[in-house]
Design a protein that fits this description.
single chain; alpha/beta; three-stranded mixed beta sheet; globular; binds nicotinamide-adenine-dinucleotide
């Protein structure tokens, strides 16, 4: 196990879920209540006998104020108080909900995460952004509060469906692209081992991605600068997710391809590097052919969203693999091309 610290949060990478009471001092809490994803509970039920729990049905729809209120009532029924510890066990949906619930229940109680999807282990659980959706708008209601701990048990990944695994790989490849060329090359050289979920390789990849995200969050928790780099591929990715309902990682993959090739500026990413990124995404089964989608409509969707704020769009692009930058684009320039 490796412990990575950011701000005051320890991330136990490759820790064992059953060791929670040894890794985290829970003696001062009146009780521990788990908030568990329904599929994780069904698949791993015998691992959750120690604590009381509330179940979260699978799906993005649960990220709503209405569902959070149901959980609040569940907590009251279980006798939760100010010194209860909440632990979210599941993917990004459960982490987002549990973090928000923890931040608002009785004006804030402690919470931690045991992320069970690859995406949550390398991305959603880290960084303290918690929130729920309203209507079509994602994460419009939320808080930034860091979890007390993150316990990442790789055993949970054994039951993760292939598509969900690929979703996590999109964020992992993103981390290599924006922050670490050596890491990017390592992923390129280990596609087969990662796909087979070979433990030693997976452990390294999760650890490196946690280090990259945690270090960025530690420097810029409230996204005033550096943290924006994590949005590489996401400006168009979010538009694709919203318009075509593709899974998050699939949308980010297409978003990365769009920004690398369509919105290219002369001094930016070389064509051979863009090809390497394309190949790596494709090797993990992620879609890369954005030409199959109505690009003009997508651009319009992005531009429409941003236009209200200014006539400039700030895009995250790569100078080279391992180095990202924020580039302002005049909206006029994009629409003419
Ligand atoms: N807060 C942040 O910084 C942040 C960052 C990225 C994404 N997110 C959010 O994360 C969410 C997406 O997270 P996600 O991709 O983990 O999706 P998810 O939480 O919906 O989980 C995906 C699916 O996998 C199932 N599952 C979870 N763990 C499993 C396991 N070990 N075995 C079998 N099935 C399992 C779930 O039941 C679900 O059906 C989105 O709501 C997104 O907005 C938040």
């Amino acid at each position: 196990m490796k412990i990575i610290h950011y701000k005051s949060t320890p991330v136990f990478v490759d820790g064992k879920w059953e060791d929670l009471p040894k890794l985290v001092d829970i003696s001062g809490y009146s009780k521990v209540i788990l908030v568990i994803d329904e599929n994780v509970f069904r698949l791993w039920e015998n691992r959750f006998t120690q604590f009381e729990y509330l179940i979260v049905p699978s799906g993005e729809e649960q990220k709503s104020l209405v569902f959070v209120e149901k959980l609040v009532q569940g907590l009251i029924a279980l006798g939760a108080d100010r010194s209860t510890l909440l632990v979210g066990v599941g993917g990004g949906v459960v982490c987002d909900i549990t973090g928000f619930l923890g931040a608002v229940f009785m004006r804030g109680i402690d919470f931690g995460f045991a992320p069970t999807t690859l995406l949550a282990q390398v991305d959603a659980a880290i960084g303290g952004k918690n929130g729920v959706n309203t209507g079509d708008y994602k994460n419009m209601i939320g808080t930034i509060v860091q979890p007390k701990f993150i316990l990442t048990d790789l055993l949970f990944l054994n039951t993760l469906p292939v598509i969900e695994f690929a979703n996590g790989m999109a964020e992992i490849i993103k981390h290599g692209c924006i922050a670490d060329a050596t890491y990017f090359s390592y992923i390129e050289s280990n596609v087969e081992a990662i796909t087979k979920r070979q433990l030693d390789v997976l452990r390294f990849v999760i650890q490196r991605s946690v280090e990259i995200k945690a270090s960025i969050v530690a420097q810029d928790e409230r996204e005033s600068g550096l943290r924006k780099l994590l949005n590489y591929g996401h400006t168009f990715g979010h538009a694709i997710e919203k318009k075509f309902g593709l899974p998050h990682g699939y949308s980010v993959s297409l978003g990365i391809m769009l920004v690398n090739t369509l919105v290219v500026i002369p001094q930016n990413l070389k064509a051979d590097e863009s090809l390497r990124i394309r190949q790596l995404l494709a090797n993990f089964g992620l879609p890369v052919n954005y030409e199959e989608y109505p690009i003009k409509e997508l651009l319009e969707l992005v531009l429409h969203d941003k236009k209200r704020l200014s006539d400039e769009l700030h895009l995250i692009t790569l100078k080279t693999i391992g180095q990202a930058e924020i580039v302002p684009f005049k909206i006029d320039k994009l629409t003419k091309e």
